[in-house]
Amino acid sequence: xxxxxxxxxxxxxxxxxxxxxxxxxxxxxxxxxxxxxxxxxxxxxxxxxxxxxxxxxxxxxxxxxxxxxxxxxxxxxxxxxxxxxxxxxxxxxxxxxxxxxxxxxxxxxxxxxxxxxxxxxxxxxxxxxxxxxxxxxxxxxxxxxxxxxxxxxxxxxxxxxxxxxxxxxxxxxxxxxxxxxxxxxxxxxxxxxxxxxxxxxxxxxxxxxxxxxxxxxxxxxxxxxxxxxxxxxxxxxxxxxxxxxxxxxxxxxxxxxxxxxxxxxxxxxxxxxxxxxxxxxxxxxxxxxxxxxxxxxxxxxxxxxxxxxxxxxxxxxxxxxxxxxxxxxxxxxxxxxxxxxxxxxxxxxxxxxxxxxxxxxxx
Length: 363
Hints:
Peroxisomal Thiolase, Chain A, domain 1; lipid binding; alpha/beta; 15 helices; acyltransferase activity, transferring groups other than amino-acyl groups; peroxisome; lipid transport; EC 2.3.1.176; six-stranded mixed beta sheet; two-stranded antiparallel sheet
């Protein structure tokens, strides 16, 4: 039997050698494009960045949420090529893009492939997310049970209710102020002005963020991610592939990547903070720090899942950037932006960059 350390030693190193993405845009906007066109742009940009032909790709992992089965094949066939390679489609809600990347990395790490394309795209509908299949059990039924038992269910969209109430729980438990959440929205919109791929590139004052249209409780529209159309792609490669194609100057190693699903505490502790994923994030971060040998103080730039401003603040604590309950203090110190300890969501985050589910976490 191998020890865990011996098993890690047998795994191969994995590198990102090329990336590409489209500008994220509002669904249904003028000149909106279909998903094959979005995938083509992102994929071709990634291949050009890596300076390799599509024929060098062994497998592809494609993520999308809204679309018929095998959209991944259609997206690739008529834009990048038909080489007969395996194309694996994944659908994991907001973590769809990172799941495509996770599977692609494992294929190389385990020695199954030398070069894999991780591609994510989404063509969404306007407005909040809704239920598509009302004739079967919802995958969120346990989450909804907890929400209803504790607070009841209002007519507002479900996602902002869940994350807004998680933020409210943080306020009640730790004395966090609604201004702390608003400052996160203000910061992310400010960051987005430097990102040409961002859906929104407008800067707002803190007062404007707080006075914008209310979505649920303290969450205003400028603290919530929009629905978006867009695509992103990354080319992953083994060390041998990097050497073969002379990609050492551009290769960026993935030192650690973890994926978690719900733990018993997500529901048993009757906590909205836990229900929206705090313990999953905390454990995934712990494993990444352990495998990489790094700590939060070794990190300079962080992109995290800010579907709502409340989740960004909760994730500061889950990542160990500050003790639990001290996310608001971190915000007040300015440790989440330029000049502070970390630059968090320099892209503008989901709040401003946009959130085409299959694409957002690929790059």
